[in-house]
């Protein structure tokens, strides 16, 4: 099988009916990977902040926009919400500044978990929090995510 390759930048999302390996690097940002084992299709977002405050453009930079938009894209590809599975990554306190319990990474994690729960989408795997960034590669055809921690001297 031939795979496309895609690098997902912050504030973006990606979903395609064809098989792709999507790579992204996360610090305090979150990536939500959605996968439908029935249609064998997947999509991923990479958001930086939890909530859009209503000013400026409503973009996938914000978790509440990114998660909702990704679910909509999966529906447009023929996926059913009841079939979707989620994997969540990121939300690290990479800057080691401030209180990790109230930092942006923690708020991003909570937003992703709460929105997926409200949508009725089960989180089947996650690697969130801590103080190290992560590199992930999401296989949109199998739903597998290859994950590695980044050394602390790399900032994302």
Could you characterize the architecture of this molecule?
- The protein is α+β, with helices and mostly antiparallel strands.
- It has one domain: 60s Ribosomal Protein L30, Chain: A.
- The protein contains two helices and nine strands; from the N terminus they run E-E-E-E-E-H-E-H-E-E-E.
- The protein has a five-stranded mixed sheet with strand order 2-5-4-6-7, with helices on one face.
- A hairpin with a 4-residue loop joins strand 4 and strand 5.
- The mean pLDDT is 93.
State the main characteristics.
156 residues; alpha+beta; 60s Ribosomal Protein L30, Chain: A; 5-stranded mixed beta sheet; 4-stranded mixed beta sheet; globular
Instruction: Using the alpha-carbon principal axes, give the shape.
Output: globular
Q: Order of strands side by side in the largest beta sheet? A: 2-5-4-6-7
Radius of gyration: 15 Å
Average pLDDT for all residues: 93
What is the makeup of the main sheet?
5 strands, mixed
Based on the structure given, which CATH architecture is correct? 2-Layer Sandwich
CATH topology: 60s Ribosomal Protein L30, Chain: A
The CATH top-level class label: Alpha Beta
Q: Helical stretch count?
A: 2
User: Helix coverage percent of residues?
Assistant: 10-25%
N-C termini distance:
32 Å
């Amino acid at each position: 099988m031939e795979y496309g390759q895609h690098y997902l930048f912050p504030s973006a999302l990606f979903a395609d009916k064809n098989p792709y390996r999507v790579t992204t690097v996360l610090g305090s940002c979150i990536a939500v990977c959605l996968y439908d084992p029935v249609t064998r299709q997947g999509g991923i977002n990479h958001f930086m902040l939890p909530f859009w405050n209503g000013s400026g453009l409503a973009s996938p930079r914000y978790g509440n926009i990114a998660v909702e938009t990704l679910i909509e894209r999966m529906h447009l590809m023929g996926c059913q919400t009841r079939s979707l599975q989620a994997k969540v990554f990121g939300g690290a306190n990479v800057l080691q500044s401030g209180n990790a319990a109230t930092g942006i990474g923690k708020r991003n994690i909570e937003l992703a978990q709460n929105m997926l729960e409200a949508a009725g989408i089960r989180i089947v795997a996650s690697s969130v929090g801590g103080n190290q960034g992560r590199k992930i590669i999401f296989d949109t055809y199998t739903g597998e995510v290859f994950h590695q921690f980044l050394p602390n001297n790399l900032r994302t």
